[in-house]
Design brief:
Helices cover about 35% and strands about 15% of the residues. It contains 11 helices and 8 strands. It has an 8-stranded mixed beta sheet, sandwiched between helices. About 45% of the residues are buried.
Length: about 270
């Protein structure tokens, strides 16, 4: 088994359970590769749910495919592991079926910005009170390393051996243009900040979008921890999250990858 061979990873999750996160961790251990940023995302969500004291019975997760797809299995809550690109319709249905639930849509850059891209603008413009966490490693990792919608121009992969000719999508810009009422970005290497952004997203009344940069250490040798530690910086202290224009300007900066809350407003939510 994976975790018998990787005792350090297993031990870290055992420690989480011992420290009181048992109510939010399932007995199933994640099967991601050692070093994957998704481990930090799972841990941050456990800590966020702990701090907010939301009962597991009141939490529901919808997911699609890819490395993020099995996320509902690792959290003790209601969950639905769906098909490619359908995390948002699943989450929407859960919320409309029971408005008391705290609902998450968990999806990757491939899952959410390719076949699932058509669902994104409609969930955002309707301002459905759900949380959309997009795990972005800029590669199709589960299928062993093909170029994804957020891969940089020139990326060499199994589908682009001579380098990708496509321009990458910008998830934060997309979310802003679609009318999301909460738009933020986190980096899985900055654990405390990511957890706090999750809490803010959950507390927001309306459609919350959190773009999470999470390196794939096996198949993406360009978008690395080193690159993100160098380029990820907090939004300027002068940034006003109520300013759509400032949010758009900061989101367009690709040399500095700003983290934090880009934009938030209180437009009426569709419960």
């Amino acid at each position: 088994m994976f975790y018998e061979k990787n005792k350090d990873v297993k031990a870290s999750f055992d420690t989480v359970v011992q420290q009181g996160a048992l109510n939010y961790r399932s007995k199933e251990m994640p099967i991601w590769c050692p070093g994957c940023g998704d481990f930090a995302i799972a841990q941050a969500l456990v800590e966020a749910l702990n701090e907010l004291a939301i009962p597991p019975k009141d939490v529901a997760i919808g997911s699609g495919i890819g490395c993020s797809g099995r996320f509902p299995v690792f959290i003790k809550c209601y969950g639905f592991h769906g098909v490619h690109g359908r995390a948002l319709p699943l989450a929407t249905g859960m919320k409309l079926g029971n408005e008391k639930l705290t609902v998450f849509a968990m999806g990757g850059d491939g899952d959410g910005l390719s076949i699932g891209a058509g669902h994104f603008p409609h969930a955002a413009r309707r301002n459905i009170n759900i949380n959309y966490f997009l795990f972005d490693n800029s590669i199709y990792a589960l299928t062993k390393g093909q170029t994804s919608p957020t891969a940089d121009t020139g990326t060499v992969s199994k589908t682009t051996p001579f380098g990708s000719l496509d321009n990458p999508l910008n998830p934060v810009l997309l979310s802003l243009s679609y009318g999301s009422t909460f738009v933020a970005r986190a980096f899985s290497g900055y654990h405390h900040e990511m957890k706090n952004l999750m809490i803010k997203a959950i507390q927001h009344e309306g459609f919350s979008f959190l773009h999470i940069l999470t390196p794939c250490v096996v198949f993406n040798k360009q978008k690395t921890y080193e690159l993100y530690y160098d380029r990820c910086k907090p939004l300027p202290k002068s940034h006003k999250k109520s300013s759509f224009d400032q949010a758009m300007k900061c989101a367009q900066n690709q040399k500095t990858l700003y983290t934090g809350v880009f934009y938030q407003n209180s437009r009426a939510a569709l419960q």
